[in-house]
Write a structure and sequence with these properties.
CATH topology of the largest domain: D-amino Acid Aminotransferase, Chain A, domain 2
Helix content: 10-25%
Largest sheet: 10 strands, mixed
Strand content: 25-35%
Order of helices and strands: EEEHEEEHHEEEHEEEEHEEHEEEHE
Bound molecules: pyridoxal-5'-phosphate, 2-OXO-4-methylpentanoic acid
Radius of gyration: 21 Å
CATH superfamily of the largest domain: D-amino Acid Aminotransferase, subunit A, domain 2
CATH class of the largest domain: Alpha Beta
Length: 349
């Protein structure tokens, strides 16, 4: 792989005590080009603007998919990844649905590990901090004919981050807009899924909510997932989470938490959840907790959920599952505790 180092590091320009999510990028990036039926020119370059044609397909038809993962530093400054193979596989599942060229595991891993080695000083240490990793593929062919591209770029960017949400959040259940539909691309991490969610999310924000809880598009009666996270509810002392489907992202945090919770002897039910069930449980004081989970959001407790003119407030204020599960998961990710599931992978130098 060709490696071109940045002439000067920008590391000292970043305020690591006030990291806002996704606003800072490290000194280098990884790039590979797909052309003439193969991936070529895998390279690491300084983080810099791209030169591309205004006729590139991604700019017109949004043919792009991405991933989100994190690297963590342990007490001894060793760098660790959490289930990176899951992200590599999911990137290609997304790419296939968008009729894009997937990235072979060797290229993904070589790019990822080499980039992390070069920019390892950027992996922040300490509570709640990590290096967010953004692999993505986009259609770079210069033509605006509305069909699949024959050329793609695969890139990886790195961004030191703190918490995505700094406080507990308040979410609004969608009763008009939809994020995904059966047969669509909801399960894929396609850029367009997010573009379509920004307008409803802004309207919800104007009403005082942090994000939208998406419901099934046909009836708006089942809760599915939130803008950047899957959802879990504590009803009584059980955790209930919706099954993933062709409309919902198969979150890696979600499936890890299901295993962690079960190993802590918490009952977890994976089944469809009606909005009405949440309203009924809330009325009886049994809706104790709700939380979102995702790579960026980690575990974000939800303090209130709005539905039409109702507001459900979570009743459990202390000894919350969300806190216990987050502590267990972060212990695994940062190697502060035992990784009995074998989920972490070291970046060696
Ligand atoms: N759902 C959506 C829409 C997301 O954007 C994310 C974030 O990646 C998730 C769920 C959680 O997925 P993961 O835990 O794999 O990050
Ligand atoms: C992630 O958690 O990795 C996400 O993809 C969320 C992102 C859209 C901010």
């Amino acid at each position: 792989m060709q490696i071109t180092k940045a002439s000067k590091s920008r590391l000292s320009e970043v305020d690591f005590d006030n990291l806002s999510f996704g606003a800072n990028f490290t000194d280098h990036m990884f790039v590979a080009d797909y052309k003439d039926g193969k991936w070529n020119d895998a390279r690491i370059t300084p983080y810099e603007p791209l030169v591309m044609s205004p006729g590139a397909k991604v700019l017109h038809y949004g043919q792009s998919v991405f991933e989100g993962m994190k690297a963590y530093k342990d007490e001894n400054d060793k760098v660790w990844l959490f289930r990176p193979d899951e992200n590599q596989k999911r990137l290609n599942i997304s790419a296939e649905r968008l009729d894009m060229q997937g990235v072979p595991a060797e290229i993904f891993n070589e790019g990822l590990f080499e980039l992390l080695k070069i920019d390892s000083d950027w992996v922040p240490k300490g509570k709640g901090r990590s290096l967010y990793i953004r692999p993505f593929i986009f259609a770079s062919e210069e033509t605006i004919v509305a069909s699949s591209s024959t050329e793609f770029k695969f890139m990886i960017l790195l961004s030191p981050v703190g918490a995505y949400f700094s406080n507990d959040v308040k979410l609004k259940i969608a009763d008009k807009f939809s994020r995904a539909a059966n047969g669509g691309v909801g399960f894929a991490k396609a850029g367009g899924n997010y573009a379509g969610s920004f307008y409803p999310a802004r309207l919800a924000k104007e009403e005082g909510f942090d994000q939208v809880i998406w419901t099934d598009d046909a009836t708006h009666t089942f809760v599915e997932e939130a803008g950047v996270m899957n959802l879990m509810f504590r009803i009584g002392d059980k955790i209930v989470t919706a099954p993933t489907s062709e409309r919902i992202l198969d979150g890696i945090t979600r499936k890890s938490l299901i295993e962690i919770a079960r190993s802590e002897n918490i009952e977890v039910e994976v089944r469809p959840i009606k909005v009405q069930e949440l309203l009924d449980a809330s009325a009886k004081g049994e809706l104790k907790e709700a939380f979102g989970c995702g790579t960026a959001a980690v575990i974000s407790p939800i303090y209130a959920i709005g539905h039409k003119d109702m507001l459900m407030e979570m009743s459990q204020k202390e000894n919350r599952y969300s806190e216990m599960l987050k502590a267990k998961m972060v212990e695994i990710q940062t190697k502060a505790g035992e990784d009995k599931f074998g989920w972490t992978k070291q970046v060696t130098f």
